Amino acid sequence: MKRHWSPARVGAGLVIGAWAGLFWFVWAAGRTSLYLSTRTAWLIPMGAILMTVAAVGRLASARVERTEHLGSRETVMFGVIALPVVLLLALPPATLGSYAAGRRSNSTGIAASARIVSGPIDFVDIAAARSVKSAAADLRARAGERVTMDGFVTVDEGDTDRFQLTRFVITCCVADATISYVTVVDAPPGQVANDDWVRVTGTIYPLGSDILVDAETVVPIPPPDDPYLTP
Amino acid sequence: MAVDVARRPGATEPRRGSASSRAGLWVITGLAGIAILVRLLDPEQFAWVRNFLIVFGSLLVEAMPFIVLGAFVSAAIEVFVPASAFEKIARLPRGLQIPAAAASGMAFPVCECGSVPVARRLAAKGLAPSAAVTFMLAAPIVNPVVVASTYVAYRGRDTVAIMVLGRLALGFIVAMAVGWVLGAVRGDQLLKQRDAEVEAHEVDAAERRWQRFFGHLTGDIVFMARFLILGAAIAAAVQTFIPQSILNGVANLPILSLIAMMALAFIMSLCSESDAFVAASFTAFGPAPQLAFLVFGPMVDLKLGALYVGTYERGFFRMVVIAVGATTLAATLWIQVFFG
């Protein structure tokens, strides 16, 4: 009996193939860190492989003996499923910024971080110091030390020499992002704007729940490859 | 349920073909237009659009592999596991089936999106729907990966034991309670019937086993994906426009704090493997509201709501919201009395 290509099966294969293509693209273009944490980065190659297998399997079984038609509703449904693929491929590399920072809660870091006692201080330690007494005590013991921290700028209107240097902390994906920040004071006036990435070198002073960095230098930097931190 | 579409009147076929061609053309044009629009968008002026797309994309990029993995398991159950295997389990008394289903969730370390297609298939194959739903609700909370992530999120705090053990215990209790509420409902009363024509395109009973496997696999992916996309879009929109600090005002109010955290879990639609880190960040709230967040969220949220509505018959989603909400509220109220 003569076999025909089933448009519905080909459509399903192509749509799932498009998703597989998105995952391969994200993986090959090094964009995994724009969506997932280092802990869940393995989902990208796994998703790419599984979806490729599913798409190839569907296309391999897409020739059928009966005549089939693809309904308008199914066509639109395939379009809806392909829409996120198009959106994510069209979106230039982007990360959450000051807009999201104002809407997120504070990260708590990881309380048992050993770095806070003797290693270089980072935003995960800062987050821990804001929420756990022992970590706050460890950070207080290091008051007056020189630190270098990279982050993006969140500046309140009217502030000229003061801004918040912020990083997002994510566990699985960007949807679970929480913020960690230090308040930078004595910064060169008017040199930074919201969402600028900068490297601040200065002296750290934990003052209760506020953690200040008295800036010596504020240098613009390109956005890092891993814009989000994972505790 | 299969429909032989070849027997449809031939006169309608050209019209159907041209209608679907027109629909295809509109879809492709629409997708191309959206792509150009996103590319031309000024991120400075439309920060909320960028924020929405990033959160929407990250929810999908994380959840899709689990949906696909769940669909692989689901298709394998359908094609390779004989129905008689489930009939034996279905003959067990419900008092045994439900706790066993909840406990088997410990062996399925995926988040909530992966457990939905598996539960659907289990119910379709003859497992008591109450047991399948119990498994679906328990698995995202009681699996070892989630237990470990909850421990890591609360490590170093006085409340670590309450949070880890409390979440595990409440996960079992609430999932089994919903299973009991469902009672003796039959699979055909619970599961929404799929579009007959679409289903006929997916699988032909006369096909070879591997072909049927891929038919069920891609059918489940396509079926689940559209609801996941809808749920992720709503969750991303809510995350984009509603600040999390909106809840801080009720942190110290006994019952409202529990309801507020359950509502937050519902709208944030987080993966159960990461939600403990977000719950832990709400330091103004005590252990009980945080537990309410950690138990309610993996069972009922916007993303799952869309999946439930697509998978189960009308009324199921409402029943799950009420049953999970009431049980979680009652249980966490007791915890609030003793631990705050």
General description of the model:
- The complex is a heterodimer of chains A (231) and B (340).
- Chain A is an alpha+beta fold and 231 residues long.
- Chain A has 7 helices and 8 strands.
- In chain A, a hairpin with an 8-residue loop joins β3 and β4.
- The relative contact order of chain A is 0.14.
- Chain B is mainly alpha-helical and 340 residues long.
- Chain B is built from 16 helices and no strands.
- Chain B has helices spanning 13-40, 47-80, 83-90, 94-104, 112-124, 129-142, 144-154, 160-182, 187-190, 196-202, 209-241, 254-268, 275-280, 287-296, 302-311, 316-339.
- In chain B, α7 packs antiparallel against α8.
- The interface between A and B is large, with 85 and 91 residues.
What is the topology?
The complex is a heterodimer of chains A (231) and B (340).
Chain A: E1 4-5, H1 7-28, H2 43-60, E2 63-64, H3 72-90, H4 98-101, H5 115-118, H6 123-131, H7 133-140, E3 146-154, E4 163-169, E5 178-185, E6 197-207, E7 210-220, E8 228-229
Parallel strand pairs in A: 4-8, 5-7
Antiparallel strand pairs in A: 1-2, 3-4, 3-6, 4-5, 6-7
Helix pairs in contact in A: 1-2, 1-3, 6-7
Chain B: H1 13-40, H2 47-80, H3 83-90, H4 94-104, H5 112-124, H6 129-142, H7 144-154, H8 160-182, H9 187-190, H10 196-202, H11 209-241, H12 254-268, H13 275-280, H14 287-296, H15 302-311, H16 316-339
Helix pairs in contact in B: 2-5, 2-11, 4-6, 4-8, 5-6, 5-15, 6-8, 7-8, 8-14, 8-16, 10-11, 11-15, 12-14, 12-16, 14-16
Q: What's the overall geometry of chain A?
A: elongated
Structural class by secondary-structure content of chain A: alpha+beta
Largest sheet of chain B: none
Low-confidence runs of at least 5 consecutive residues of chain A: none
Question: Rg of chain B to the nearest angstrom?
Answer: 22 Å
How widely separated are the two ends of chain A? 60 Å
State the total count of DSSP E strands of chain A.
8
- Give the termini separation of chain B: 53 Å
Averaging pLDDT over every residue of chain A, what do you get?
88
Oligomer: heterodimer
Radius of gyration of chain A: 24 Å
